[in-house]
Amino acid sequence: MGRSRRRTTGGVIRRRSPPAALALPGVRQVDGAPGQVGPGRASSDAKPFNNRDIEVMREQLTGVQAVAPVAQKSVPVIYGTENRNTVVTGTDSGYFVVQKWALARGRGFHEGDERAGRAACIVGQTVREKLFGRADPVGETIRVHNVSCEVIGLLEAKGQSSFGNDLDDTVLMPLRAFQRRIAGNMDIARVYVSARNGVDTAKVQTGIERLSRERRNITPGKEDDFSVRDMKQVVQATAGATAVLTGLLGAVAAVSLLVCGIGIMNIMLVSVTERTREIGIRLAIGALEEQVLMQFLMEAVVLSLFGGILGIALGLGLAVVTTTALNVPFLVDPFIILVAFGFSAVVGIVFGYIPAHRAAHLDPIQALQHE
User: Fold this and answer.
1) Transmembrane region positions (predicted)?
2) Where are the domains of the chain?
3) Could you read off the pLDDT of 191-201 as tens digits, one per residue?
4) Which of 3, 13, 51, 58 is nearest to 225 (CA)?
5) What is the number of other CB atoms lying within 10 angstroms of the CB of residue 216?
6) CA 44, CA 251: separation in Å to the nearest integer?
7) Which of 110, 118, 338, 364 is the most exposed place for a label (fewest CB within 10 A)?
């Protein structure tokens, strides 16, 4: 489900191939298919949603802010000598509300564009870069499949989805133009619904399910041939999975820090043992315990920071290689690097304190007699 500038929840109606599906942002999804006994299975009897279904939803659903039909197809998009396959989406102005997607330049779809089925296009940032470079595409004409289409707007960048898809690699067209001139049918694969702020999404879900069953002539006792997806629950599930992964990575990092800290402590203990006479001489000629303590603490911190620098450099190098191989942006947060660098210093202080304390409290006479 998309959101407006106010916090909203809603859903999406989606037709699978071949079954139909209903999904609402903010509403629980139950996967299912027509004519099947259990959820998650498909049937060739499933019929797609149509324009009248959208009109009825807008008229009869309560607590809804926007309803946006969506039909998609991957087709060639051509400008001059540049040519690329991209996902073309047929929709209307409600799409920008439910997806909370603003325009960087140009304008959205007017009611006249939607009613007349005018071949007008709004392109994403990736399409702009591939076809026009850094030039402004608004006002230019591109070919979408075999249709000449005027670019009337440019979408703001959204980046990648949680599944790694490039959301900016898209072209939007008025639904009727897409249906008649690109898809060649009046089918609607899914419908996005945005609930108003403060509205119980369970009620919105119930209303959509009831209305969809009526529209699709599903009698009591029969399985739904559509699905309703609650995007809040999807986000919560994703957040839960992310929290588990973060916890696991944190545990691995903690073990790594512990092992590294013990290594630093052992190295410093060996250093104290090998330099016992040196420490005894310093204490005998007047060095204070605090000065000896600080000397060995600083040595431990330097050793830890050196390891931290190597680790940061190795991590950045692996990140560059990975992002290049996966063709995803490489972004660096300097704050995270500073935090990692600070942790290196803390590890040196914590695990270097015991050897430093031992060195500072050596008896000068016994230290001088040490072989």
Assistant:
1) 248-272, 300-323, 335-354
2) 1-49+189-229, 68-188, 236-369
3) 888 888 877 77
4) 13
5) 18
6) 48
7) 338
Kindly provide the residue ranges of all beta strands, DSSP E only, lying in 228-362, ordered along the sequence.
Answer: none
Phi and psi at 240, nearest 5°, equal -65, -45
C-alpha 109/C-alpha 119 separation (Å) is 11
pLDDT band with cut points at 50, 70 and 90 for residue 24: very low
Alpha-carbon gap, residue 204 to 42, rounded angstroms: 25
* CB proximity list for 297: less than 8 A, separation 6 or greater: 348, 349, 352, 353, 356
Say how far apart CA 49 and CA 225 lie, in whole Å: 11
Percentage of the residues of the chain whose pLDDT score is greater than 70: 85
Question: Are the C-beta atoms of residues 85 and 195 closer than 8 Å to each other?
Answer: no
Closest CA relative to residue 77, chosen from 168, 147, 125: 147
Q: For residue 281, give every residue at least 6 positions away whose Cβ sits within 8 Å of its Cβ, in sequence order, or none.
A: 367, 368
User: Is-contact 223 34, C-beta < 8 A?
Assistant: yes
- pTM of the complete model beyond 0.90: no
What percent of the chain is predicted at pLDDT more than 90? Answer: 19
Please list, residue by residue across 31-60, b when 16 or more beta carbons sit within 10 angstroms of its beta carbon and e when fewer do.
bbbbebeeeeebbeebebbeeebbeebeee
Q: Determine contact, residues 23/212, Cβ cutoff 8 Å.
A: no
Residues 6 or more apart whose CB falls under 8 angstroms from that of 10 comprise 1, 2, 3, 24, 25, 26, 27, 64, 65, 66, 98, 192, 193, 194, 195, 201, 204, 231
The DSSP secondary-structure symbol of 63 reads S
133-141: average pLDDT: 91
Beta strands in 17-146 (DSSP E): 22-24, 64-79, 82-91, 103-106, 120-123, 141-144
